[in-house]
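Appendix B, Record 12. Input sequence as logged:
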Amino acid sequence: ELPPSEFMQVADSTWLVLSVVSNGRAPAGCQATGVTKIARSVIAPLAEHHVSVLMLSTYQTDFILVRERDLPVVIHTLAGEFDIYKEEGGECVPVTCDDVTNGFLKPKAAASPTLHPVQSPQTRFCVLTVAPDTLPAIATVLIDVLFYSHSPPREADTGIQDLDSITFFAFSLIEGYISIVMDAETQKRFPSDLLLTSSTGELWRMVRIGGQPLGFDECGIVAQIAEPLAAADISAYYISTFNFDHALVPEDGIAEVIQLLQQRQEGGR
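Logged structural output:
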């Protein structure tokens, strides 16, 4: 329904959304949440089969977006570990490998992944939700933050910047559930009694991946970040965009995260 515009770029692929639902058999000692929860079982296998993914972590759960043309590879890769269902007429219907055999690709020889630079601004972030029926009460502030408060960075085309802070605001509305990621200063503009967060109320720090627009064709970017964090049992929200990827980790763990990712960089050289 959006009118054509020279200012809007649309990727040529159609994407499908995967959501991973726990069946309760996770090890009792596994405390990590977010992308690290599915790093070994979903993210890494898809990267090995050259499936490019976009990650969208929300307050409620995590979603993996894959290109529609990669669906046969996705099904064959994950069928051994998961029961897979698709929605048909509002019902969940089991999917088998036989349903999507057409176009299945065998794994290719692994190419050396590109090691993208990682930056960690000093900004502190909150991961929040709001009840849908209270959304009108914050609509004016929300519109101002989304469209009017921030001008685009002038350095966007100059590569890596030395960032002390970063402007980042993510709003998602999925099946009626609202999720918001904002910096702690922006949070002060909203009515505090309407924004809900976890019982700990913890703050998050960000690592931003990429020195130039990442696009959608490269595989393994999420895996490179998620796997070392999963090995260290560190929770992480992960939000992919066209230009950069963003991982949010608990504030008290940022030093360990930076060290782990620096080791990854040095080990890949």
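The two ends are 46 Å apart (CA to CA).
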